[in-house]
Amino acid sequence: MVDRHTVLASWAKVIRRTLDASGCDSAPLLAAAGLSADMLNDPNGRCPAQAMARLWRLSAQATGDSAFGLKAARHVLPTSFHALWQAQSASQTLKDAFERVARHFHVVTDAWSLEFTAQGDEHVVRLLAPASGIAPEPEAIDAAAALVVYTARSLLGNRSVAPIKVDLQRPAPAEVNAFERTFRCPVTFGADGNRIVWPNALLEARLDGANPELARHSEALLTTYLAGIHKDNAVAQVRACLAELLPRGEPSQAQVAQQLHCSVRTLQRRLSDQGTSFTGLLDSTRRELALAHLADPACSISEVAYLLGFADTSNFTRAFRRWTGQSPTEHRRANGSPGQTSPGR
Fold it and tell me: Is domain 232-334 annotated with CATH 3.90.960.10?
């Protein structure tokens, strides 16, 4: 079963900045996760959630840093998540800001949810994974939880602000102290849920940046963007399906339709409604993945051909020359990545 959930591509740019700041080469990790430069260069683009989960996992392994997610949260920019930061910043109170995030969290990802609820004298931010689909990597939850706390401190203009407690489902990391320094409150690992608990009094303080008109305009932008995601979902679903099926050989339209639980005719109509076709998506998906894999010097050209479902290297080379005007070897030389020359699979 293909997981159809997506994540805003700017999350991958946040991870890339964090890797680069740590002295770790991000290019081969992005390629190994199946994420191309084209995907990251679209500020409103989306990536398959499976690919983003792979990137989190590979990044944590490459850096050996159990606090990688906490560090990634520090590399988020005000424009990383569309108009979400502007909507929060213009909110009347912290409670108002968190409610806006909960309403529009699917702008960031529809692979999991953020819930904000009252609980007696407290309010709780919960990070919830869906009953079906892939579970978020611990580093992704760490980053989201840290970002919630960093946001509160920034909006209130007080770096000493801290929640009452933080519960994380992940096992205790090697660097427990890093978590305690970040959250500045008791942190429980191996909990039955991911929660950040806040006192009501803190949430009701008026924010200096409150601007109801700007908040409304920002929310309108978020609503429009979410509507666009739903409209474009067929293309994202087909791309995710192709990325999963390609290593088994060139997928047919019937195979993809079966994976998406629709008829070939329905699939054709949905793609036509969005101004594209199955053949066009297969070709563009292969091109994007080829560029991503070729950026990884550990991946031989024959292995790239295999991963893209080509019968042999010569067929891949012809296709790549049609896409770029260069052979894969020429492309690697031009981009300073010689790669392996030995046969792959």
Answer: no
